[in-house]
Design a protein that fits this description.
about 350 residues, mainly alpha, 2 domains, about 0% strand
Length: about 350
Amino acid sequence: MAVASALTEKAFADRRRTGWEELHTLSRTTTQRGLRKLAAADVAKLPSLYRDACADLAAAEAARYSAPLVDYLRGLTASAHTLLYGPHARARGEGGEIRIQHAWLVAFPRAVRKRWRAMSLAAGLFFIPLAIGVGLTMRDPTFAFRIAPEAMLRPLTEAYANGFDAGRDAGEGTMMAGYYVYNNVGIALRCFALGIFGGIGSAFYLVQNGLSIGAILGYVASQGAGANIGAFIVGHGSLELGAIVLSGGAGLSLGWSVIAPGERTRVASLQRTAREILVIVGGASVMLLMAAGIEAFWSASSTPRVIKLGVGGTLFFLVVAYILFAGRDASGEREGEDRSEEAKP
């Protein structure tokens, strides 16, 4: 049995080692030279490599792999986290911190507002199926079995029926955080990347995920655990679901650049749009990382329901206000010009 476990661990490490080494190299380079010295392609890789490393750490802990491997992955994810959110993320050098602040306080929300048509369409494609899934499942709970496996829905319902009085220990929270990052960022990346096929892939994933989430919510609520699942979701839902919608909207914009390139070639239109919406994808990825942390350590905690609802409601209004109003300063007239130029998603 020990031999089989060792072989499994070796196969796991051999399969994932290339990504670990690449993340380690980028972390070391950034520590020595600063984030600004990295190539644009390397910067774009960082969130995906970090997400994969978190998922690998969760898998290694769940499989009870050897302490050296688990310790190595813990160190790797810790250094990558510092790289993304610590002092190096402030882009060493004169004005570096200001540029990072500008990206989050101005560039990201402004880029979302500039493509408000695509974002509105994405919201409709996601939340309308979600509402339909809830309504149809509340009316007929067996409808959920056509969307999600019954073998998953029944244990899920039992878990929410038990509530969160016992909370969740730190070890389990860490493992679940890795899973949430892997799962949620994967959904968002598919919603964005498949938009290259004329936006059809993004639209499909938005509708599919909206309907699936709605069916799950409706089924759990129909079994009497609606209040518990509502209290669980409200804490991180505005970040998680909002990020999925933003990623889908970015994918729709990408698809439209291929369908209607205007006076440019399709390749040139695609390249220009991809550069413009990169900040949206980056912002959505950070929102999902934040949502994963909240979901793992707060949503399943033993905190009273009324406090969770209050905090979740406050966070929802803050997220909406941030998207709608952040970055509206003296240069807002220029933003209005950019938005008026965007006739389509």
